[in-house]
Amino acid sequence: MKFILGKKLGMSQVYGENGNVIPVTVVEVEPNTVVQIKGRDKDGYEAIQIGYGTRKAKNIKSAQKGHFKDLGSFAVLKEFRFDSKGKKSRGEEQESIDSANLTVGQKIDVTIFTPGDSVKVTGTTKGRGFQGVVKRHGFHGMPASHGAHSVLRHAGSIGQRFPQHTLKGMRMAGRMGTNKLTTRGLKIVTVDLENNLLAIKGAVPGNKGGLLMIQSQG
């Protein structure tokens, strides 16, 4: 399994072999560092912990300094999980951690990917603030004529006479966005080794500058 952390720079477009325009998301991928390899015997699950980015040493807690050792001052730590039992998740065969063939302190960069690779990208969606039910949940709203007044984008009834309380899970207005989202079935279009950039076909979750987890699929 191939995986790496990167930063979303924004969208652009490239031209294919036939001259057709391909919309792509450009991701900046600085070299990642393997910080820890977790095993089932000691940690209860299998995962590889990756460090990405840098921050000032004064902002790192003493416990983190001991964990990082001499590997660097990382801004972000993320884990990529494995399963040696070969279980399937969302129809995908889970690989053993031994197949990664990585060691603590090893660097991971864009060279692990090649154009045409299928990947899934996980990020945090854009925050939309407090939104009503029409935008947040796709409600159709109330009738716009025949005496309707000031209720066009209202939610309508949120319950019944009995039981005399609002049921859990009722879709209502509230904060929208800033959720973890994974987009699957994306393709690597180009790999820029000189500038540490990946061009991924289509859109990926999140704002410009947002952290992305890129993982091979299939």
TrEMBL record:
Gene3D superfamilies xref list: 3.30.160.810, Translation factors (2.40.30.10)
InterPro entries reported in the protein's UniProt record: Ribosomal_uL3, Ribosomal_uL3_bac/org-type, Transl_B-barrel_sf
GO MF terms, alphabetically ordered: rRNA binding; structural constituent of ribosome
Source superkingdom: Bacteria
Annotated GO CC locations: cytosolic large ribosomal subunit
Family matches, as NCBIfam families: L3_bact (TIGR03625)
Job of this protein: One of the primary rRNA binding proteins, it binds directly near the 3'-end of the 23S rRNA, where it nucleates assembly of the 50S subunit.
HAMAP family noted in UniProt: Ribosomal_uL3_B
Protein name, entry field: Large ribosomal subunit protein uL3
Statement: the UniProt record of this protein carries the keyword RNA-binding: yes
Subunit comment: Part of the 50S ribosomal subunit. Forms a cluster with proteins L14 and L19.
Entry similarity comment: Belongs to the universal ribosomal protein uL3 family.
Keyword vocabulary terms for this entry: Ribonucleoprotein, Ribosomal protein, RNA-binding, rRNA-binding
GO biological process: translation
